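Customer ticket, subject: "Can you confirm the structure for tRNA-dihydrouridine(20/20a) synthase?"

Message body: Hello, I'm evaluating your service for our small team and ran a test protein. I'd like someone to confirm that this is what the system normally returns, since I don't have a reference to compare against.
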Amino acid sequence: MSQQQSRDKSMQDSQLASNIDASLSCRFSVAPMLDWTDRHCRYFHRLLTSRTQLYTEMVTTGAILHGKGDYLLFNEMEQPVVLQLGGSSPEDLAKCAQIAQQRGYQEINLNVGCPSDRVQNGRFGACLMAEPQLVADCVKAMQDSAAIPVTVKTRIGIDHQDSYLFLTDFIETVATESQCQNFIVHARKAWLQGLSPKENREIPELDYERVYQLKRDYSHLNISINGGISNLTQALVHLEHVDGVMVGRAAYQNPYLLADVDRQIFADHGKLPVSREQVVEQMIPYIEAHLAQGGRLQHITRHMLGLYQGVPGARRWRRHLSENAHHTDAGVQVLVDAMKQLGLS
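Agent reply: Thanks for trying us out. I re-ran your input and got the following:
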């Protein structure tokens, strides 16, 4: 065996091991959500659950390769964390995959599900479902340039291309041509024309059975389901049919549901859920460090508004943070005072 063949085999073995790790870690995840799942949100969520897989917001290849800001910052505590990429150039995606691996991300996810006009104009997101060979080329380019797993997040269809055959043709092409093993499927199709991104999250009907059928027909693939899942009871039902569950808005609007994920979803029965008050206390040093670096309190507390969802006084908590955290001189005392609104401090 030549040295090059040896290196290639080593990379393939590493990729296989990484894919196996990915199949285990993706049993439960919080979806990548633009303007929501930033590094402050992920740090906050990680205090609630140690096992849940967390995702960045979607970052375009252009932003990474040509942007002025650093879009790849994350705290090591956030791990396992996945970088979601938006793009359709295999060459650019390969470069970004190398950078992601160097930065310490444990996985890369290709966005083939976002239906916004801006994303379509950039030729990525859900419109790529119509180009399965290109998606396969993109995934393979990333796999060839980095040893960390590459996964695909997609929909069940787009516009009038919403048959089960269309979905299986897409999955089979990508899986066969790139050896991608991990797919997260939003159980709604996307309307590329006529609906806003918000409407695309609500109006197209959910079809969980189609995702279940996909898993039955492609049992060798790791299939996770996404869309409309609002609690852990529902997640456990889905896990009877698929390999993983991805929760989106529910985890953001009611983040405390994450506190019992490790016990209920990962069977870590020895771990008691952290209390809301403990989470707030643990956030204070992080907030102080952010403020010391010139950050604003609101950058972090906006992700914490739903922490007391369903608890008496939750509205007062939200109102106090909303009305006071945006001030330029706002500090951790705002958080302490918000606790007082709940009679906890």
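A couple of notes from the result: The radius of gyration is 20 Å. The chain has two domains: 3-264, 276-341. Feel free to reply with more questions.
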